Amino acid sequence: MTHQLIGKKNKIFTYLLLLFILSTTSGKFIEDQNDYSSKINVEGLSKKDNSKIYNELNNLSYKNILFVSKEDFQKVISKYNIIEEYNIKKIYPSTININIKPTKFVARISGNDQLVGANGKLIEERGNSEILPYIFGEYNSENFLNLKKNITQSKFLFTKFKMLFFFPSNRWDILTYDDILIKLPQGDISKSLNLAHKIIGSNDFKNKYLIDLRVKNHLIIK
């Protein structure tokens, strides 16, 4: 009977000792996890937008810096159309710096508060008072970026245009700040823009306000 009692006491002591070791190890593991958590810094946008992105990325701060991937950030950052590009820099052992370059506003969508970024994406920016050309018609990012690229390659400056009209036939009309309407063809846009630029600069174009270049090798001036 005495041996049985001693055996039970030994088992209880062993159990308590094992429980203490496990709880101590578990506590140390949690402490180690905290020691290797990541500190995330976000900069480049407004204080409000930086804070919004930081809050969405906050769950990553509990991960070891070694296990945080670019894809983890991309899932969040790609949701913000205001971002043109960004750079992620890991500073070991526990700091991650995210530097963001915002896109420039280059146009407005007619009839609502949406602006168009240089990246072709739509951004809702209430209260923005920049003087930008208006886009009429159904907006298509690919078509707009193609037009913008052709304007950049021509002798015109994008800022010289007041209105851009996009048609279902994938064709653009452009109105300058001098109220000259340029009707462009579907293709050869930069070439057509250069021709329009040359015509506008000639003495024969005085008191005329329309250049129609829609038909190849056919020019209408009014």
What is the CATH class designation of the largest domain? Alpha Beta
Q: What profile does the largest beta sheet have?
A: 9 strands, mixed
What is the count of DSSP helices, taking H or I runs of 4+ residues?
5
First-residue to last-residue Cα separation? 119 Å
Task: Return Rg in Å.
Answer: 31 Å
- The number of domains is 2
Residue stretches low in confidence (pLDDT < 50, at least 5 long) are 21-34
Q: Can you give the helix content as a percent range?
A: 25-40%
Q: What would CATH call the homologous superfamily of the largest domain?
A: Cell division protein FtsQ/DivIB
- Based on the structure given, which CATH architecture of the largest domain is correct? 3-Layer(aba) Sandwich
Shape descriptor reads elongated
Description:
Helix 5 (189-200) links the parallel strand 10 and strand 11 (210-212). The chain has a nine-stranded mixed sheet, with helices on one face. Strands 1-3-2 form a three-stranded mixed sheet. The protein is α/β, with parallel strands linked by helices and 222 residues long. The longest helix has 34 residues, at 2-35. The chain has two domains: 35-102, Ubiquitin-like (UB roll) (Roll), CATH 3.10.20; 105-221, Rossmann fold (3-Layer(aba) Sandwich). It is built from five helices and twelve strands. It is elongated, with a radius of gyration of 31 Å.
Question: Which terms summarize this structure?
Answer:
9-stranded mixed sheet; Rossmann fold; 2 domains; Ubiquitin-like (UB roll); 3-stranded mixed sheet
